[in-house]
Write the structure tokens for this entry.
Amino acid sequence: MPTPRKNNKPTTPKVGPNDLGKLPPQAPELESAVLGALMIEKDAYATIADLLRPESFYKDQNRLVFEAIRALAAKDQPIDVMTVAEKLKSQGTLAEAGGALYISELSRQVASTAHLRYHAQIVAQKATERELISMAAKIEEQAYDETQDVDELMQMAEAGIFEISQRAQKRDVTQIDPVIEEAFARIRKASKNEGNISGVPSGFHDLDKITSGWQNSDLIIIAARPAMGKTAFVLSMAKNIAVNYGKPVAMFSLEMSNVQLVNRLIMNVCEIEGDKIKNGKMTQAEWSQLEHKINELRGAQIYVDDTPSLSVFELRSKARKLVREHKVELIIIDYLQLMNASGMNFGSREQEISIISRNLKALAKELDIPIIALSQLNRNVESRTGVEGKTPQLSDLRESGAIEQDADMVCFIHRPEYYHLYNDEKTGKDLRGLGQIIVAKHRNGATDSIWLRFRSKFAKFQNEDETFDDDLTPLPTAGNVTISSRMNQTMSPDGATQDNDGVPF
């Protein structure tokens, strides 16, 4: 038998898509399989409803078919070849979708729906990849534009990727047994804690009785008018958490620099007046006190970030890193209205605040730690009279009702003394040097209020039973006497005090 001749002609290599140019990620065969499965089983749509959108389909024909299927499912109508074709016909898109023949071919190509969700997940992944490529191309184009502000471009990029990641995050339905085990384990752990504290303790005993500590995954809003002591309260609490309980805490200060914030913390811990901390004019005894007590702060796991105009997307990436690298158990934001959601377009500031509060709640849930955000109140409080009239209400939250809606807990700080109210007429309580913490909303518990001792010259909150005679002002005996407060004053360059009205403390 003769030996076959070798073909010495050079062979032409097979040409793939990447040799001609990159094609967008796609899976047209699986798109067809998914659509066919949806039309041959009655309840198949519910299986993939959380995974797919019309934009998930690469082929325009398939996108139109899915839109028709989704429209039928929304009205709880049967989904099959006939009803889908009729729906497309009524919408005037049947020919554009490939005609009735294409619809019938989709259903004939599928034998069962056994792998429907798996196929749908691949289709969704390809769509996410296309979105990322599109976002990257947009960023690249603008990066070449020399007129484009780099900071704005970075925030736009972060916001775009954040939106894509939010859509891509899907959780499967979980049978209750493993959830019960997790809940039971947490209950057992809480039972071993002293004082029935299951969350992060604030160090304020009466407040911890109401909250059982700040709970994981909760968004807590602490709101007040300027000069009520918001920053003083959270700094006192951060010191308690980090120094007294040894738990890592992070604070994002959008208004003060990290040095200013630490100076306030030194005032709080060392009990030396702010003016003396700023100018260093202290007695020998005060220097000794500073050097001794400041050791309490050294090594404390308090992490400070003073990025101005922080976006919620920057916060998200920084918070993840803090939890991952430093095991931070609580995050404080001072304050919410100074944040932004750059990179996204809004019709109003109220809509932007709504996005910010919603994302803070999502972040608390994702990291499974409490997030405390300070917030301003509107001026309605100022127009009301009397002890009860000056007490903040949920309707006083500034700029957005979404803050109240998204928060698991809303607390108000109220110091009647600031409004020259020195006695509670109902109880006869002396209100000098006191601050009221009002738990106005508590999704998982009771609402109530407690009193704390406020030492204004040290910007410090303490438990009410810790009394200090040196900080009490004599009760006025006649007339409308104003109790002087340095909480709204700062030092000018020449050493004199100057008003700093409106700065939230």
Remarks:
- The longest helix spans residues 116-143.
- The CA atoms of residues 176 and 182 lie 10 Å apart.
- The longest strand covers residues 434-442.
- The chain has 19 helices and eleven strands.
